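Q: Got a minute? One more chain.
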Amino acid sequence: MKKSIFLAILMVLSLSVFAQYDPVALEILNAMSKKYKSITAFEANISYSLTNETSKLNEVKKGKITVKGDKYRLVLPELEVINDGKTTWNYLPDANEVNIDNFDPNSKDLNPAKIYEIYKTGFKYAHMGEEKEDAVSCDVIELIPEKRSAELGKIRMNISKSDKSIVSWMIFDHAGNRFKYKISQFKANVKVEDSFFAFDKKKYPGVEEIDLRY
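A: Always. Here it is, folded:
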């Protein structure tokens, strides 16, 4: 009897571990990552939404993102983020102000240039089924932080079944906020100079620079 109970507990624990690191999810994530790593540079339109059911918050914004290796440039109506892999510039058009800081590759902040690799460190993953988004058939993958103390909550990714591209991803935080990023009009292997990923203050007359580097 005791042996049967022990085997039952062992089976439950084994299934739990299996679910935490789902091989089906890993296969899809690896295929997605391989696709993006083979692209020299890309640009896409991006829609960003922030919702919170408790506070009745519902914001939607649209912009454009360009990525080349570790570098990226994200342009939204009220914010422009430029990162050359070493320095990050956050430009606020309304204030004509730019905040300059060192880029920390080990930061807990989500890096849009590395969304396709985020699952490789610090996350468990599971395949949650399939769904359609804008008529695209997607595999739904959930990434769950290994540490309960992690600042980020879970991340849900919709990955196209046909070409393994990221259709959207949603971040759940501990305050009940849901941040969703949706990709459209994706263009692969675009030609873009490295200088595009650096802030040129000559193009922003009168800009106030706030240097936070140390």
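A: Helices lie at 2-20, 23-37.
Q: Perfect, thanks.
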